[in-house]
Amino acid sequence: MDQVVYRWINSTALLRADVEALVGVCLAVAVTVHALLRKRRVSVAVGWIGLAWLSPIFGSALYLLLGINRVYRRARKMRGRPSEAVPPPDADDAVVPETLWPLDRAIRRITGAPALIGNRVRMFRNGDAAYPEMLAGIRDARASVAMTSYIFRDDATGREFCEALAQAKDRGVEVRVIIDGIGGGYFRMLAYKRLHAAGVPAALFMHSALPWRMPFLNLRNHKKLLILDGRVAFTGGLNIAAANRVSTKPRDPIRDIHFRFEGPVVDQLVTAFTADWAFADGESLDGPPWFMEAPAVGDCVARVVTSGPDADVQKIEQVVIQALNCARRRVRIATPYFLPDELVTGALIQAATRGISVDVVIPAVSDHRFIDWAMRAHLDVLIRAGVRVYLDRDPFDHAKAMVVDDVWCFVGSANWDMRSFRLNFELNVEVIDADLAGQIDALIQAKMDLPLTEKDLADRFLPVRLRDAGVRLLLPYL
Question: What would the DSSP string read from start to end of 56-97?
Answer without folding.
Answer: HHHHHHHIIIIIS--SHHHHTT-S--HHHHSPPPPGGG--S-
